[in-house]
Amino acid sequence: MKSLGTLSWLLAGSALVMATGAMAQTTAAAATTAATDDNEILVTALRRSESLQNVPASITAFTAKTIEAAGIVRPADFIGLTPNVNLVQTQNAGSSFVIIRGITQARNSEPSVAVVVDGVQQVNAAQFNQELVDIEQIEVLKGPQGALYGRNAIGGAIIITSKAPTDELAGKITAGVDNGFGYFARASLSGPVAENLKFRLAGTWYDTDGFIPNTFLGEDADPFKEFNLRGNLLWQATPELTVDLRGAVSLLRTQAFYYNIVSDVNDVSLPVRVNNAGINDRDLYNATLRIEHASDIGTFTSTTSYDKVTEILTGDGFNFLPIPESLLFQFFGFDINQSQYLDVSAWSQEFRYASPADRPLQVIVGAYGIGTQRYISTGNLIDTGNGVTPIFRTPSTNPLNPQQTFLADAQDNFAWALFGNAIWKLNDQLRVDASLRYDRDTRENTTLTPANFLPNVPGFPPGVTGQVRKRTFDAWQPKLTLTWKPLDNVTLFGGWSRGFRSGGFNQTGVGGVAASNGIVGVNDVFEAEIAETFEIGLKTQTADRLLTFNASAFTTKSENSYFFVFLAANSTQNLGNVPETRIKGFEVDATLRPLPGLDLIAAFGYTDSEIKRFPGPGVVGNQAPLISRYTLNLTGNYRAPLTETLDLTARVDYRRTGRTWFDVENSTSRDPIDLVDTRVGVAGRNWSLTGFASNLFDIKYNAEFSPGGFVFKARPRRYGVEASFNF
Question: Which of 300, 362, 557, 727 sits a CA distance of 20 to 30 A from 201?
Fold first, then answer.
């Protein structure tokens, strides 16, 4: 319980900032993340508010206006609009992998991208794929951002900012229906509670029967119910001191494990035929306390956060077409199904000081700590045709669904970091950004598998119930960027950065099981990943902001990148390491505003990867897994008056995703995919009515291919109508 024991110093630190606030004299100006006019966007991605076109980093930003126009309600919606960024959606709602510039992610791995919501970094990848509630702005940073955001920002960072409480009572209600016999509602309410105290409350609900038929059961395989609630109290205790309290809950109920088995990922001919519908239930909870004191000497911030993640998965293990039954059935006369349970809780604390932003030398320094407790159990159960028993912390005792294999592990992790960032503006044209962060991550894994279920593989030491394994991973993460502005509306930058992603533990005994199945690169421990990146970039904009053009190029050397292996023998999801991978690529994007109300956007991203070292034969020279060769985005967005009080709104988004490889062997690759989303509607002064369609032309493709030939179908066309009312 040592990670929870950190609570005392977390609260003590928050009290220290409160005390500091009591001694303040004057107030610093508050920064904004909103657009200052129709065409200029301010971002806080480098922890200070700056114009997007002046920031020396590759960033794609979505303002509240864009979020509404594009119908962005889930992470897939904005990632699909971002060049060189991909989201691999899986059958497990808690396992959606964000890949930025070829830095991959896999099941049960640490994220490759730091996701920061209202200043707090998500502690587990299972938190990412949830509905976006009442969002003001989203920023996607590309390339290692570990110097600013820590150990899991090796590929980049996603900064999500919620809408702030308002001085006057205001709200919004949205409701709609879709073709999955689904209905949804989103609502927000904000206003004053008392003098200097404001609130904001927002929630969403979505319920649909699904879109992918399960022909065996005669129902859809992907029914989906999700409830989200987020609350915020903002107290301006003094002119200098702000106390910000937030809480959030997300409850998801859907299904999982409805695979097919194919040798070619492009094969979409097989229907879903699963005899056990299974479940995928995920609960997320978050509470955050942010205390900020601003004065002439700078801003002191304390952020304390608690997160809780639980997820249970059950489903059919082997009865997937075209295989009529498993090998176990042929030999022993029974089939199997599977279950996985995840339980994560974490406390985190950050202290940060930022010097005033109006000085030639600007400094940010801080410290960060996080204590995490993680429990995971996986197992196979004998399928007697009586459904699937969810397995949590002990093996099944149900005679109708007896346990065949079972593994359980508990992890107690503590990580801390010290960081600093300096911006030195030599003159109006030259600027130097330098950052440095040290991360140290200590991980402890305890084997909780009962002795009669421990793997026993000849040539490997037997596991021991209660065995404790401990490893410490640490790294320095520097970043250096030089910026030159030869003209007011031209920014040139170049830099070098180093990113770090911590290692960890597979479940006890999987190294031996992998070796006995001829799989190399997978052990009981997977090593930390290090990525070094060189980047150059250009940002330009005409004086009237009619045309914006940006470009960047990068090259990355990654050591010990992750790859995923599913071991069907014990239903475990495991990580291995690729000793060395080289990645290179570029991005270009342009925005043209030829007419009032009309935006035309084009963006292209290219990524080429090559595995340079690997312990097994036939892999060196292959493409790294889960990386798409290129992305192409084209967008047209139009708003024009129909009458004095009524506007026409229309938007079309096209995205082409290039060839994608899914495993280190490059056993199969998915052909390029072309998707079109569209929205058309009318809007009054405080209301709107919009029709929408995603995957307009109903393109059939597999979203994921896992080793062993397991594929998961992507969602087909979804369309519907929604109405909104503001007050």
Answer: 300
